[in-house]
Amino acid sequence: MGFDYQSQLKLSQLQVLIAVADCGSFSEAALQLQLSQSAVSYAIATLEEELGILLFMRGRYGAHLTPVGEQIVDRARQILYLMVDIVKQANLAKGLEGGLVRISAFRSAGTNILPRIIAQFCQRYPAIAVSIAEYDDRADVEDDLRKGRADIGITYLPTSHEFEIWELMHDEFVVLFPPSFEPKSTQPSWEDLKVYPLIVPPDGCDCDTMMYAHCAKYGVTLQATYKIRSDTTIVNMVAQGLGTAISPRLAAEPIPEGVQVFSLPVPFFRTISVAILADALLTPAGFALLDLLKSSFVPIRS
């Protein structure tokens, strides 16, 4: 009989078809599917009758696909794959209808990077709540990821192998001079860094450790006069002529009028990255925010 499109194929028939093709016998397929052999035989016979073709050659050595049977099985596999994908996409959509994404970030990233990203995310997924924990430095960010207090972290390289990271942007370390500074050339020298007292964050800041190490490579030892925790306070002290500072640009922004900004004599950058705990099981909402972060920045080229 010819196939009637009104009598739709059943997914159970396709599952049986694939099982028999994979096992090479009706009895083995029955064991795999936990059905009786007669139920498997009936499903295949019904399918062959509805399609009007022979799918298997039966014999004492099992069941073997006919040439047209091989073509039908290939399409059956595609149909079942798409059915699974439909359910997956539906579950993903349901996961984006609510929930919470927790982000931890060092302060300048939280101030200058995340607001634009979160605004886009909330436009796309208005039902998802976002929480942001801000810290002075990356150590607390990475600790939040380790202890499950955050789904996504904004940190900077280098990080440990326990994290999976995606590089977002380079952030240059700049020298901030007070308005009274009169450079002798377009590019200050290492000696110019000693003209004013140096204002830095307290000991223990990873950024400052990186900066000290960079300067030391060129024989420059920096001596701090003031140690101030707040980036904003540091920049405003420079604006008042109390000293100079070396800071990642993001941490210095917004830079007050009159403060003079230069690259270091040998330019230096930190690489800001988004991180998750390796093998972390993110929620659909977490994956959606991670994808948005990764797609919002031009890939870094070395």
By DSSP, the count of extended strands is 11
Q: What fraction strand? A: 15-25%
Name the poorly predicted regions.
none
Helix content: 40-55%
Oligomer: single chain
**Nearest-angstrom radius of gyration?**
32 Å
| CATH structural architecture of the largest domain | 3-Layer(aba) Sandwich
Structural domain count = 3
Q: What structural category characterises the helix and strand content?
A: alpha/beta
Order of helices and strands: HHHEEHEHHEHEEEHEHEHEEH
Question: What is the residue-mean pLDDT, rounded to a whole number?
Answer: 90
Q: Tally the helices.
A: 11
Largest sheet, in brief, is: 7 strands, mixed
In CATH's first tier, which class of the largest domain applies? Alpha Beta
- How far apart the termini lie comes to 65 Å
C-alpha geometry:
rod-shaped
CATH fold category name of the largest domain = D-Maltodextrin-Binding Protein, domain 2
CATH superfamily of the largest domain: Periplasmic binding protein-like II
Account of the 3D structure:
The chain is of the alpha/beta class and 302 residues long. It folds into 3 domains: 11-94, Arc Repressor Mutant, subunit A, CATH 1.10.10.10; 100-168 and 271-295, D-Maltodextrin-Binding Protein, domain 2; 170-270, D-Maltodextrin-Binding Protein, domain 2 (3-Layer(aba) Sandwich), CATH 3.40.190. It contains 11 helices and 11 strands. The strands form 3 sheets. Strands 3, 4, 5, 6, 9, 10 and 11 form a 7-stranded mixed β-sheet that branches. Strands 1-2 form a two-stranded antiparallel ribbon. It has a two-stranded parallel ribbon with strand order 7-8. Strand 1 (56-59) and strand 2 (62-65) form a beta hairpin.
